[in-house]
Write a structure and sequence with these properties.
With 83 residues, the protein is mainly alpha-helical. Helix content is 65%, strand content 0%. It has one domain. Helix 2 crosses helix 4 and helix 3 crosses helix 5.
């Protein structure tokens, strides 16, 4: 399910098959960020989307261990994961 939520987030963010809607994109990215599905979290981390990165940072700041592990593997984002 988190992979589908990630894909929906991208659709809303970029207006793929629907109108652009950053609020809905953020909602779906956040669902992924707070999941424990490492594959979906890795896609979120690899995304160039600032909305996706913000959702991942929030999950890390909230102590989601899987998100923290994925974040740790993505050092190029840099900085403090808190928002």
């Amino acid at each position: 399910m988190p992979k589908a939520q990630y894909n929906l987030g991208r659709c809303y963010e970029y207006g793929i098959g629907c109108e652009k809607n950053e609020e809905k994109a953020t909602e779906f990215y956040s669902k992924v960020a707070f999941s424990n599905e490492s594959d979906a979290l890795e896609e979120l981390a690899a995304s160039k989307s600032s909305l996706a990165e913000k959702a991942l940072r929030l999950a890390v700041a909230a102590g989601n261990e899987t998100a923290l592990e994925v974040w740790g593997n993505k050092q190029d984002v840099g900085g403090d994961p808190s928002v």
